[in-house]
Design brief:
Elements (H helix, E strand, L loop, with lengths): L7 E6 L10 E11 L4 E4 L6 E4 L7 H7 L7 E6 L5 H6 L9 E13 L4 H17 L1
Antiparallel strand pairs: 1-5, 2-3, 2-4, 2-6, 5-6
Length: about 130
């Protein structure tokens, strides 16, 4: 799972420990704003979001933004309009050309929801490379 090149990811603080990979449950604080600064949503200070990385049960910008983060890390992700399709379904007044900004802080990586996902993705990438080399 590589983030699209159109996604702009900036590390604000590098965390510690192992990186977040597909199959992890990531506990994080998240805030989403429009480029103008209007807040769409944000986690409460006491209630971070649990996200199944690779489960496609959250917005694409969050999921791609979490990849590679380490506990305690902070990132800013600027999401172009082509990746905000789910947000536009939830927020009907969000214009089709809206750029969104996510602020993420990874709190914990307590468990795997799918312990084999990372190896399956790696095996699939190896098969794709072998097919393109043939």
């Amino acid at each position: 799972m590589k983030p699209p090149r159109s996604l702009k990811i900036t590390d604000r603080k590098i965390g510690i420990g192992r990186p977040c990979v597909p199959g992890d449950v990531a506990i994080c604080h998240c805030a989403c704003t429009r480029r103008k600064g209007d807040v769409l949503f944000a986690s409460d200070a006491d209630t971070p979001y649990p996200i199944r990385v690779g489960g496609r049960d959250c917005y694409a910008g969050i999921e791609y933004g979490l990849l590679g983060m380490r506990i305690g890390g902070r990132r800013t992700i600027i999401v172009p309009p082509n990746l905000t399709y789910d947000e536009r379904k939830t927020y009907a007044d969000l214009p089709a050309n809206a750029m969104l900004v996510y602020e993420l802080e990874l709190i914990d990586l307590p468990e795997k929801w799918d312990p084999d996902m990372e190896s399956r993705l790696a095996d699939g990438a190896a098969v794709d490379r072998a097919a393109s080399d043939a």
